[in-house]
Amino acid sequence: MDIVVEHLTKRYGPQKAVDNISFRVKAGEVLGFLGPNGAGKTTTMKALSCFIMPEEGDVKIGGYSIREHPEKIKKHIGYLPENNPLYQDMNIIDFLEFIAKVHQIPKHLIQERLLDMVKVCGLEGEKHKLIRELSKGYQQRVGLAQALIHDPDILILDEPTTGLDPNQIVEIRELIRRIGKEKTVILSSHILAEVEATCDRIMIINNGRVIVDGTAEELRKQAQGNEILKLGVSGGEIKDIFDQLLEIETIDSIDLIDEEKQLFEIQSVPNESSVKAIFDTCVANNYYITELTPIETKLEDIFRELTLH
Ligand SMILES: Nc1ncnc2c1ncn2[C@@H]1O[C@H](COP(=O)(O)OP(=O)(O)OP(=O)(O)O)[C@@H](O)[C@H]1O
């Protein structure tokens, strides 16, 4: 089921929380919304889940508009809100049964769905505990189970790992990845590693606008443009090596980064690789390469560069 967002705008008073956002999500895709605090991620997710109505623009899910058919759309969406509100004094089974009834799942199917969710979300050992007795990681699993109980095609997860310890984060990410094999997933985060580890595609949002949209690899390419290599060469005088490398036409600049280890940082001209020419030059001069590795622009740097303005 595809999601099509067209010119979505939501204002709170004079402020545009979401400002003319348009994008598409294909069925089966896992999309990460990334952005600093207040960027507009939650507002966009609420509009997609029909919890708020935008002033302008539209969202179409499976061809249905949120303006005309919110009830139809809600049946296809599972939503895990920020801070995962749960009824603390219910046990897991009672809570999930309650949510199943809210979704009007036929009575004779509820038991089977409950057991399914307990299994999928790894809640077997805890299912009779009260929600307030659960660890945060398990509470988050219950949040996922309630979002999935009506078997929606689309899952919208607002900061699903916030407040979890590193082990719990890994577990929830694995669970999302597993679920993402069968469903369209949109999740938000301000942690880059999170979206990189979980999502097929990343959208960076800032001040209510989409400023970048692509795979992690595309983002890196877009940001760095040129090949950057870390090169270590021995078997010759550093000045001679430097001069020989300068002869290579595809090399744009060379920096000496460690004199003792004879390490250089090499930047190639746009759209060219210098790897083969470096290798040939070293062989021709009886130098030997101690290191040759591409330097990737860190997504952290790209994120900071794009959202600090
Ligand atoms: N109910 C509201 N009333 C007034 N302003 C709001 C309301 N909800 C959100 N905003 C404002 O809209 C902007 C976008 O908020 P939103 O919650 O969508 O951002 P976010 O990217 O999800 O941020 P965070 O990562 O901090 O959760 C913020 O400036 C926020 O203060």
Automatic annotation (TrEMBL):
Superkingdom classification of source: Bacteria
Keyword Isomerase among record annotations: no
PROSITE patterns: ABC_TRANSPORTER_2 (PS50893)
Gene3D superfamilies cross-referenced by the UniProt entry: P-loop containing nucleotide triphosphate hydrolases
InterPro entries the record matches: AAA+_ATPase, ABC_transporter-like_ATP-bd, DrrA1/2-like_C, P-loop_NTPase
Record key words, sorted: ATP-binding, Nucleotide-binding, Transport
Signal peptide per UniProt: none
ABC transporter domain span: 3-232
GO molecular function: ATP binding
Recorded family membership: Belongs to the ABC transporter superfamily.
Name of the protein this chain belongs to: ATP-binding cassette domain-containing protein
Organism expressing this protein natively: Paralabilibaculum antarcticum
